[in-house]
Amino acid sequence: MTVRVVVGGAVCRAGLLLAARRSAPPELAGRWELPGGKAEPGESGPEALVRELREELGVEAEALERIPGEWPLKPGLVLRVWTARLLSGEPEPLEDHDELRWLGPDELDAVDWLDQDRPAVAEAGRRLRAAAAAAPAASD
Fold it and tell me: What's the pTM value of the predicted model, to 2 decimals?
């Protein structure tokens, strides 16, 4: 069976992670995820993420580093997550989402994440905490 990749973006800004609340399909509505979507045939993960963030949130972004691991969504679909940074635009819930929130590393448990997103969200939180801890030393 061919496995199709769903990309997710751990979009970070100013020490915060972007969370998106699903509005569809009905079985996922109301739960939170890292924004993204299915890669098209021939599209790399980073290319798919840039396209999906443009379509879903109306922003231009850059995929940075892949978070290790992949998580099965259903037969034939796996989630792979990249860290990403915004290049331009302010994220808006244009497609498949009805609310967005910027969460600090200690607020990540404040929303009901989709189960498959939880490992990548935890890793993104670790990276945000590490960056925050390193920041004061960098200014010395």
Answer: 0.92
